[in-house]
TrEMBL record:
This is Diaminobutyrate--2-oxoglutarate transaminase. The keyword Transmembrane does not apply. Transmembrane segments: none annotated. Belongs to the class-III pyridoxal-phosphate-dependent aminotransferase family. Keywords: Aminotransferase, Pyridoxal phosphate, Transferase. Its cofactor is pyridoxal 5'-phosphate. It comes from Streptomyces pluripotens. Its EC number is 2.6.1.76. GO terms for molecular function: diaminobutyrate-2-oxoglutarate transaminase activity; pyridoxal phosphate binding. The keyword Lyase does not apply. It comes from the Bacteria. Pfam families: Aminotran_3. Residues 388-402 have a biased composition (Pro residues).
Length: 497
């Protein structure tokens, strides 16, 4: 590209970013850390207005199961456009909707598909969460909800109430099992056992202050919470606890569904059948679509009890049908399990030597790397110094523990190092400079997250891991050489405005 042309392209790119900063809400998020202007995309690759190409491991926060502009999705959308069919029809029956519902029911966990009902909600996942909460309250006549620390279920009032960042709400909060930052300081099957005991005690103790709830909502893998896969045995325990007490179990599969974790639905790993499933993101094939699927005996709603103008998005249903069928017919869930396991193993090998890497974890193509303070006396949220030094970095390249949760000796684990959100942000910046888009998450935004499309090739996966490893190495090196000053440097988004 000629120098003059390059300057013109750069000026267009920076002008768009400046106008976005001046015009859009301060609530904008991804645009701050990722100052790019996408103009073309295909599969894993995005091309920006500045001519740069990026490997996209954000995938619309997990929306793009097949990557950008997959041919089967484009073909499905074009067929609807060319047919002259209406594009938005409220909740009227259409051939497009019928095909979507048929394909969706074909994928549901055994025990649910044969007696399921589906409610088409507003176009965002948070709308479906609201519908699920309303449904179980109507069906049980109760009001309370059980939810988990670290959860993320959306941005509307009810969804925020059951998320980990909730404020003054009428929701009982339960411990979610994890290894690296186990709330009981133990981790593994023992930590999961204590979390389950806590839940059981809360429900059965008449003085717990928590009356029998309308439902329990959980994520089989907490995504925004830091890529925390729940042990399969713990999920089975939650299923038994709720079933024995006639508490509807709501599985939020908005980010984990459609093959992401190595099974079509993340609950399939444990073999449980929830009473309600909340679905969005990938089910729309990159277009806005959200539904809840639930047991027919919960269907006590009166006509109009839950509605929404844009619940009849025909293009999203066509794109969703194509995506669901492609994932199912091409075994992409199995592919995600295999490739994800290999990616985790390689990350464990390449990042395990860095003191700033606390843990590598994930399931399928839902991967997280937690960044921690490398110094033993560092003070930061999420951990405490360990007298006499720090524990070594932890890597978990295997799926979540499925060991039976049985009583036994409960020995405390070493305290993890403090979470390092500034280091994670630095890794994200270094990744972007190398043409790799990643997301941050976790309790303290200290987890670098990978959500590549299920269609990613082995060669592309290797390129992603090379760039990520190089970015972590650069951050570790610069932090060692320059200390906190390096981390205080403004991000590209801040420099643009």
């Amino acid at each position: 590209m000629a120098e003059g042309t390059h300057r013109e392209v750069r000026a267009v790119h920076e002008g768009i970013l400046r106008r976005q900063s001046a015009r859009e809400s301060s609530a904008r998020t991804y645009a701050r850390a990722l100052p790019i202007v996408p103009v073309r995309a295909r599969g894993l690759t995005i091309e920006g207005a500045d001519g740069r190409r990026y490997l996209d491991c954000l995938s619309g926060a997990g929306t793009l199961a097949l990557g950008h502009n997959h041919p089967v999705v484009l073909e499905a959308v074009r067929k609807v456009l060319d047919s002259g069919a209406p594009l938005s029809v409220l909740d009227l029956a259409t051939p497009v909707k019928d095909r979507f519902t048929t394909e969706l029911f074909r994928t549901l966990p055994p025990g649910l598909a044969d007696r399921a009902r589906v409610q088409f909600c507003g176009p965002a996942g948070t709308d479906a969460v609201e519908a699920a909460l309303k449904l179980v309250r109507a069906a049980t006549g109760r009001t309370g909800i059980l939810a988990f620390t670290g959860a993320y279920h959306g941005m509307t009032a009810g969804a925020l109430a059951v998320s980990g960042s909730a404020g003054d709400v009428q929701v009982a909060r339960l411990p979610y099992p994890q290894d690296h930052r186990c709330p009981f300081g133990i981790g593994g099957p023992r930590g999961a056992e204590l979390a389950a005991r806590w839940t059981e005690s809360l429900l059965d103790d008449p003085k717990s202050g928590v009356p029998l709830p309308a439902g329990m909502i959980l994520e089989p893998v907490q995504g925004e919470g830091g890529v925390l896969p729940a042990p399969d045995s713990w999920l089975c325990r939650m299923r038994r606890l709720t079933a024995d007490r006639s508490i509807p179990l709501i599985a939020d599969e908005i980010q984990t569904g459609v093959g992401r974790t190595g099974a079509f639905w993340a609950v399939d790993h444990s073999g449980i059948t929830p009473d309600v499933m909340v679905l969005s993101k990938a089910i729309g094939g990159s277009l806005p679509l959200a539904v809840i699927v639930y047991r027919d005996d919960l269907d006590v709603w009166q006509p109009g009890a839950h509605a929404g103008t844009f619940r009849g998005n025909q293009l999203a249903m066509a794109a969703g049908t194509a995506t669901l069928a492609y994932v199912r017919e091409n075994g992409l869930a199995t592919r995600a399990a295999d490739l994800g396991s290999r990616m985790l193993a390689r990350l464990a090998d390449s990042l395990g030597a860095f003191a700033c890497v606390g843990e590598v974890r994930g399931r399928g193509l839902m991967i997280g790397i937690e960044l921690v303070e490398p110094e033993s006396d560092a003070a930061a949220p999420g951990g405490r110094p360990v007298p006499g030094g720090c524990p070594p970095p932890v890597v978990h390249p295997s799926p979540p523990s499925d060991h039976p949760m049985t009583p036994g000796s409960l020995e405390p684990a070493l305290s993890p190092r403090p979470a390092a959100p500034q280091l994670a942000a630095a890794v994200q910046r270094e990744c972007l400079q190398r043409g790799l888009i990643v997301e941050l998450g976790g309790r303290h935004s200290a987890v670098v997250r990978l959500l590549p499309p299920l269609t990613i090739s082995d060669e592309q996966a290797a390129a992603v891991l090379d760039r990520l490893t190089d970015a972590v190495a650069a951050v570790a090196r610069n932090h060692e050489q320059h200390g906190p000053h390096y981390l205080r440097q403004p991000s590209p988004a801040q420099r643009v405005g």
